[in-house]
Amino acid sequence: MDRISVDELVSMIDGGATPVTLDVRSGEARLRDGIIPGVIGAHPEDLEGVLALLAHGAEVVVYCACPNEASAATAARHLRRAGFRKIRPLLGGIDAWTKAGLPIQFARPDPANRP
User: Fold this and answer.
1) What is the rounded distance in angstroms from the CA atom of residue 73 to the CA atom of residue 70?
2) Residues whose CB falls within 8 Å of the CB of residue 41, separated by 6 or more in sequence, listed in order
3) What is the DSSP string of 31-60?
4) Can you list the domains of the chain with their CATH numbers?
5) What's the pTM?
6) For 58-81, how does the pLDDT look when each residue is reduced to its tens digit (9 = 90+)?
């Protein structure tokens, strides 16, 4: 499955073509380690509710903190089966984002996007 690099994602965001970005880590991990600002929490247990909010034509980036983006790739396959076509896991996940020195958001849970 094609991956998107941190640099590509930043370029998209800077260019105004912000994709829907899903964090598939557990809620506990998101609270403990932070999230990429503006993402939607979408742990596999929550994914069905999240899918109802997304347009099938949306560009979707999925990330986790697993070796080889394993959880993100699994979520991407689930999204494909649900009819989404433009999905890519973030190469290196949250670790690559923080290694690049990019901002992490630490926030209390928000029922609207469940970080």
Assistant:
1) 5
2) 22, 23, 27, 30, 35, 113, 114, 115
3) HHH-B-TT-EE--TTTHHHHHTTS-TTSEE
4) 6-99 (3.40.250.10)
5) 0.88
6) 999 999 998 889 999 998 998 999
